[in-house]
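Methods — Computational structure assignment.
A single polypeptide chain was analysed. Its primary sequence is given first, followed by the predicted tertiary structure written as structure tokens.
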Amino acid sequence: MAKLVENVYGDALFELAKEENKVDAIYEEVQGLIQVLDENPNLTQMMTHPHISKEEKLQTVETVFKGKISDEIIGLMRMVVEKDHFGQMKDIFEYFVSSVKEFKNIGVCFISTPLELSDQKKKEVENRLLETTKYESLETHYNIDKDLIGGMVIRIGDRIVDSSIRTKIYNLSRELSKVQLTSE
């Protein structure tokens, strides 16, 4: 199976960062660049425009970023421009960020509850997650979902733990619909 563009370039940047012992420095730069791309959609639009030459795009990378970010990232950006993949630059950076978090054993959790949790309850949930996963620290994102009724839904990577009342009711109604009622 072919690897996605963001995986290929993200892995290459991650391996380079590890080889040069610059994981933290490049991680910080990449997070800043994600913000730059978010705040400047015209940059991506220009860098992917079919009527702007590759040479002009490469010159733009040099003009805008040289001296402000590391040569490693400039080299990556030049390579991405050469291969006409600048439209995936943000995805490449986000893949790199997730690789660094995995490397540093930082779990990214999305927790949905029907009500706002107290700081104490959040701490309890986070401690329990740290005890039951391989992660040394967590980056948690909380979301209020009133449709859950009670309980919570936790997503870490591709794993989901759903203890919501909504799901329990749904499963129960599915089971009940399978029951055949017969009159005797």
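Note: Strands lie at 106-113, 137-144, 153-156, 159-162.
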